[in-house]
Methyltransferase domain-containing protein (Ceratopteris richardii), 119 residues
Amino acid sequence: MTREPPADVSLYQQPSYWDKRFSDEEHYEWCKDYSHFRHLILQHVQPQDRVLELGCGNSRLSIDMFHDGITQITCTDLSPVAVKQMQQRLEAENCTGCCSVVSDVKTTVYAGSIVSLDL
């Protein structure tokens, strides 16, 4: 399904826009799916590296990376709906070591258990 962009692109900044979209959209890749980038990711990301996926939405990127042995992935999104669905997908796929967090990348500083990130 091809989705038309919102009439006002500033809606992309609103969690409510994404909550509504992710409530009725199961899967969407903004660019291409993982198979198009796999060779580059595996060349530059080691299994022990920690990865931060910004704006995970309902992409399969982190799950596909996990199945390739990259297991320390934090998925973030502005939408609580997307984060809840991603956490459910991660659990259903047995992606132990991955987590999903509500975060606005414009204002969030990561600290605590995420000290440094490799990608």
